[in-house]
Design brief:
The protein is α+β, with helices and mostly antiparallel strands. The chain is built from three helices and eleven strands.
Length: about 200
């Protein structure tokens, strides 16, 4: 079994902006009736966060299909702070990253031949992410075009994201495309969505 989540990560917000923006987004979701201000730890297994906001009376407006009358979604956890986010279940490294300058795909885990990261390929990314977490600045070089790219600009595979603000929807039906677009519009930043399991 396990607990499923859908995550929206803001990949452009700075560490300093993340806290105030998180509060604005909570205010917006409460106003829309998507969540309440009540907190619960039931079924929340997010990075550095053990409580989330209980769904509000209009939570179904955020999902693609709310036809199951017995479905009761879990809390929405708000994660503030520079970090990388993974889909869960033992995944800790990105499978690949795409350079936003030259569009080269850098393969980090060469499935199905290997199931672990190529350390020589992954190390510059790991170092860049560590520096970014510590200082807000971190980059990794593209092996093809040579550009030094911020770790927040690299285009990661769908189960990996780097950002300073994330929202975990625990146990919700799949979020609708229109809701994700509106969520990104409210943030005023580029977002990445991925699903995972704890």
């Amino acid at each position: 079994m396990g607990d499923f989540f859908e995550r929206i990560v803001d990949v452009e917000v700075t560490g300093e902006e993340a806290g105030p923006l998180a509060e604005q987004m909570v205010d917006w979701m409460v106003t829309e009736g998507l969540i309440t201000r009540e907190m619960s730890s039931d079924g929340v297994y997010s990075l550095n966060v053990d409580k989330g906001y209980v769904p509000g009376p209009h939570w179904a407006r955020a999902v693609a299909d709310s036809s199951d009358p017995d479905w009761l979604p879990g809390p929405v956890a708000v994660i503030v702070g520079r970090d990388y986010h993974v889909g869960g279940q033992g995944v800790d490294d990105a499978e690949y990253a795409i350079c936003p300058r030259c569009e080269t795909k850098i393969v980090i885990i060469n499935y199905p031949e290997k199931f672990e990261a190529d350390e020589e390929v992954w190390q510059p990314f790991r170092d860049g992410i560590a520096a970014w977490k510590e200082t807000g600045e971190g980059s990794a070089p593209c092996s093809t075009c040579g550009a030094s790219i911020s770790v927040t600009e690299w285009l990661w595979e769908s189960n990996f994201a780097v950002g300073a603000l994330a929202f975990d929807f625990w146990g919700w039906p799949p979020l609708s495309v229109s809701f994700c677009v509106e969520f990104s519009r409210q943030l005023r930043h580029r977002t990445v969505e991925h699903v995972g399991k704890f």
